[in-house]
Design brief:
Oligomer: single chain
Strand content: 15-25%
Structural class: alpha/beta
Number of helices: 20
Largest sheet: 7 strands, mixed
Number of strands: 20
Distance between the termini: 17 Å
Strand order of the largest sheet: 13-12-11-10-9-8-15
């Protein structure tokens, strides 16, 4: 429960059709098992107390009374267990039979939610036995106490206000206007579905996509528990296909054709943060009955997957598709800017590093889209005090291979003259020594762009912008920044993708060597011809900073929570103290360097996270990081 993580379970017990005694025993066993696993929200299949396939046995009073008695036993078995449990059974009200989900917690029956949409087509004949449920909540007698009955119910956790649960049953999800839509708009962050969806070839993939899509559309967690082993196979097969999704992502799913229990953690605070951000998601609980329940607050053990590289698709096919898409988006952005300004020439500083390499590749693609010769690109190499032969040669050779114009301007004499002008001792390798070189390069590039009547293309990436790892009015400035929303971890994959698909072995060899070169601004003299200034030694590993950036910007994670998931995601890769050290660095730099982001040049947004002051990040340049850093100090 700590940090908003709630352990949840979808449980399919092995049953016997119409044997409520046997089924109740199996259900209670699964409840005990799930509670031992630390689950706080448990979902069983539709009509699991009796079995879904009882058919006309649902008209038998013996079965209905046994089901009611079984529910009473299940309720009593949960005494002392602070977990919200949903089980399915038939329930008679006012002379009609309803297919309901019973909500139970700690020895109390909290509510009965009837199924709204009853399938009566193909293999389904539910209207033969059941009546459609009503939305409005009324009160019915259950075991001598009044209990709410109706669809519009929200089960609200007192200890974790972000955990609000609502239920629907099987066909409800497949209908054009599922009850879960209303539930979510009333405030439910987690939706449960008690189902008995029979299996057919190809149906599981559609079912899974439907669940994932509904969780994405409603910015919710979705727990789907389906009937499985033990249901009648007279005409149908039930596979026990359980699925748990969160905001479009399937977190857990069962093997089909069995009676499996699946567990994972839902992050309800993350869901709430996403809803706060989405101003079009309007919540109105009017007409809903709110039922409180209590859970034990404890630190939920994490088992769900947190990708240590959240900006990079994990599968090769997805990664290649995404890389091609991003390169095209960058190129299209530049193409439009060149069209609008009437520019037929573009200029870039090429260093032999990753960022300028990616920018050059994008520029080549933009020229191809415009039908321009690639000699419309002027790639300028500007050797300085820290330039190594390796990066210099890669910059020059790549430019030639791509067919761009190569221009060399040695900046050392100009910078030394500048040092004399401002009275700086060139033997003092401080920030003035470094930034003077960066600003000299930018001046050259800007003036060359003016001379050629073209645009200066910026090369800085989003990770550098987050950390402020750029010289203000130096490499920080350009006329259009094609890499501004591409994080460093993704830059690597984009360059690698181009290398693998360019079809030219010499170009590929250059790009692979660029990928193998340590990230560096090369502003300090090399040692024995080797790069002496490595960025990640100074500001920390970019894979950590990109992880921090993603969860800070995308979901608003608090520092302690971010530290927790980072330790989990990078377990065995980085020590805990190392993660904390660089997380502190991230917060300090992120807050202190906003003034650089506040005046960024234009550039295309390509992903869900961006730092443009005109788009995703409107942050005061003088905001204080105290609260965030103090929270880390308390850990």
């Amino acid at each position: 429960m700590k940090d908003g993580f709630v352990k949840v379970a979808a449980l399919t017990p092995k049953i016997r059709v119409a044997d409520c005694v046997y089924n109740t025993e199996r259900i209670c066993e699964r409840i005990d098992e799930a509670y031992r696993h630390g689950a706080s929200l448990l979902v069983f299949p539709e009509l699991c107390i009796t079995g879904y396939t009882c058919a006309d046995l649902f008209w038998q009073e013996t079965l209905l009374l046994a089901a009611k008695e079984s529910l009473k036993q299940i309720v009593e078995s949960t005494k002392g267990k602070k977990a919200l449990v949903f089980v399915g059974l038939p329930w008679e009200k006012d002379g009609k039979l309803y297919n309901v989900a019973a909500a139970i917690c700690d020895g109390r029956l909290l509510g009965l939610i009837p199924k709204r949409y009853l399938p009566n087509y193909n293999e389904f004949y539910e209207k033969r036995h059941f009546t459609e449920g009503c939305a409005e909540v009324e009160w019915v007698d259950a075991f001598g106490s009044p209990v709410p009955f109706g669809m519009r119910m929200l089960f609200c956790c007192k200890e974790l206000p972000e955990l609000v649960v609502a239920a629907e049953l099987c066909e409800d999800l497949w209908a054009p206007n599922p009850p879960s839509v209303s539930h979510a708009l009333a405030g439910a962050t987690v939706l449960v579905n008690l189902s008995a969806s029979d299996e057919a070839t190809g149906k599981s993939a559609y079912r899974e996509s439907l669940i994932a899509g509904q969780s994405a559309r409603l910015l919710a967690g979705y727990i789907y528990a389906s009937a499985g082993e033990g249901e009648s196979t007279q005409d149908l097969i039930f596979s026990g296909h359980n699925v748990i999704a969160e905001n479009g992502h399937v977190l857990a799913k069962s093997e089909r054709f069995g009676a499996e229990s699946i567990y994972t953690e839902l992050d309800v605070r993350r869901l709430s943060a996403e809803r706060r951000r989405m101003t079009s998601f309007e919540i109105d609980p009017h007409g809903y009955e709110k039922i409180a329940f209590h859970l034990d607050m404890h630190e939920t053990e994490l088992t769900r997957y947190f990708d240590p590289a959240p900006f990079v698709p994990s599968g090769m096919a997805d990664r290649e598709k995404r890389c091609e898409e991003i390169l095209m988006m960058q190129a299209i952005g530049l193409k439009k800017r060149m069209d609008h300004t009437g520019s037929r020439h573009i200029v870039v500083g090429i260093s032999g590093g990753l960022d300028s390499t990616l920018a050059l590749l994008v520029m080549a693609k933009a020229c191809d889209l415009l039908g321009l010769s690639r000699d419309a690109i002027t790639a300028v190499t500007m050797p300085g005090f820290g330039t190594t032969d390796r990066t210099y040669q890669n910059a020059c050779e790549l430019t030639r291979r791509l067919g761009a114009e190569l221009l060399e301007v040695d900046i050392r004499d100009a910078v030394n003259l500048h040092f004399r002008d401002i009275g700086h001792d060139a033997s003092i390798h401080d920030v003035t020594y470094e930034n003077s070189q960066a600003r000299e390069r930018t001046q050259i590039l800007m003036d060359l762009a003016n001379k050629k009547g073209g645009l200066l293309i910026g090369t800085g990436d989003m990770s550098e912008l987050a950390l402020g790892w750029a010289t203000y009015n130096g490499d920080h400035m350009s006329m259009y920044g094609v890499n501004c929303s591409v994080p460093k971890t993704l830059v690597r994959h984009l360059v690698r993708y181009y290398a693998d698909t360019c079809g030219d072995e010499q170009t590929k060899a250059i790009l692979l060597d660029v990928l193998d070169t340590p990230v560096s601004p090369e502003l300090l003299p090399p040692k024995d011809g080797v790069i002496s200034q490595k960025t990640e030694d100074l500001v920390g590993p970019y894979e950590l900073h990109d992880f921090f950036l993603y969860y800070l910007m995308r979901f608003g994670y608090a520092p302690a929570k971010l530290y927790r998931v980072a330790r989990y995601a990078f377990s065995g890769v980085y020590e805990e103290e190392t993660i904390k050290k660089w997380l502190k660095t991230f917060y300090r730099r992120f807050f202190a360097q906003q003034f650089k982001r506040s005046c960024l040049p234009d550039g295309p947004k390509v992903g869900s996270v961006a730092l443009s002051p005109r788009g995703d990040l409107r942050m005061p340049s003088d905001a204080c990081a105290r609260l965030w850093l103090e929270e880390l100090e308390r850990i």
